[in-house]
Structure formats: C-alpha cells, structure tokens
C-alpha cells in the first residue's frame, strides 16, 4: 500500500517501542517484545513486572526493513526480540550506537547487517529516508575516546515528514540546541523522570512529564507522543502530569497517548 509523502502509520508496541510504516517500508525503533527485564537480578522482588503482555510477537514481524536501537539497555536492545526479528525479516538492517555493535553481533546478527551510528554524520538509508543521530543524556552524555555516543536519539527525515525519537534522555540545553534546526512533526519523548531511590538501584532516568510537555511546546512539535511510562509501575510517574501540563499551559498542542498495539495514521497538515 502506497501512502502520500506527508503521512505514515505509527504502531506503539510498548515501553518506547514503535513501528513506523510508510511507502512499503517498515522501521522499528527500540522494540522490546519479551519479558527479559522482569528477569533481571539485583532488584527487590517484584520490582520489574510488566503491566501488559507484548502486543506483538517478534517472530511475526516479517516485513521490517530497519531496526534502530538507541542504546544497550534491555528494554531498548533486547536479545530475544532482536534475534527473532533478524530471523523473521532476513533483509532487515540494524542501526545502533557504535558501542552496541559487539552485543548485536553476539546475538547472531551478521556484521554486514549492522550500521554504527553517531552524531557526526547522518545515515542516508534510502533516497527518501535520512537518519540523523542526536545525542542523549541518560542521565549523562557518555562518549568513547573517539567521540561516539553510547546513548542516542534519532531524527528521521522521511519524505516530507520529520520524526524524532528521543530514546532515553534528560532535557538539557544541549538537547534543545541539537533539535533547534528541525521542524518536528511527531516527537516520541520519555516521561518517566528520575529520583534518588531509583538511582540507588541503578535505574537511570529521563526527563519528566512536565519537561517533556515543555520541550514539545517550545520546539513546536506538531504532535507529541509520551512513552516510557506505562509498562513498569516502579519506573513511572504516570501520565496525568503530562496531560495536565499541556491542557493548562499549552492549549492546542496536539498529543496522542497510545494503547499497547494501537496503530494511528498520522497525516501532516500544511
């Protein structure tokens, strides 16, 4: 099915994961479709419990052309999910920060299917799609000695659309500057926040709901999508502060709260 240049289908698959479909191309960003996080050791009993089952089975994703991972945390770069996708979609490529590539190879994904991504240059995936990595602060910006970032977000310039997936990041002046040259149509922002008690357990955080709302309004996103708030109750601040902030301070700012597995046809209005 062919779409107009100013529209695409967005499917939310949980945590921060989305599948984007446009012009017979399908891209997944940070797909997490197992319960791997629930099995992590070193946390209080019951700390990680999924609130809903994966809405999609990764082995059914037979049409993916590209998977983008923002960093190597389990809920963003899950071995069980990615191995299944690599097998189900044998032509699929995988893009991730350079530091992630050894782990992706260890999952059994061939090196020639992998692309190291960094902020120094965009990746022209096709004539219609250019991917610009954006630095992320989770909770700090981490780079290797050659300047490759360990945490990334991505701006996708896809035909006439501009999409931003933040991955995991705080809101910083540097992030605002990095995004200031883009006119974002749809932005996916984490809103789970951070606090000292989660930090004590080694759970690094992100911008909170108010910051995410403020960022979307400041940069004039056409539509903002909150993510990273609905799967794990112990790593969330809920959705209410986000909605309240938009209604009180930014009337008219469009947003969409997805249910797991839900698809939405987004069409840019001129």
Automatic annotation (TrEMBL):
InterPro entries: Metallo-B-lactamas, RibonucZ/Hydroxyglut_hydro, UPF0173_UPF0282_UlaG_hydrolase. Residues 51-229 form the Metallo-beta-lactamase domain. Keywords: Hydrolase. The keyword Aminoacyl-tRNA synthetase does not apply. SUPFAM superfamilies: Metallo-hydrolase/oxidoreductase. The keyword RNA-binding does not apply. It catalyses: 3',5'-cyclic CMP + H2O = CMP + H(+); 3',5'-cyclic UMP + H2O = UMP + H(+). Counteracts the endogenous Pycsar antiviral defense system. Phosphodiesterase that enables metal-dependent hydrolysis of host cyclic nucleotide Pycsar defense signals such as cCMP and cUMP. This is L-ascorbate metabolism protein UlaG (Beta-lactamase superfamily). The lineage of its organism: Bacteria, Bacillati, Bacillota, Bacilli, Bacillales.
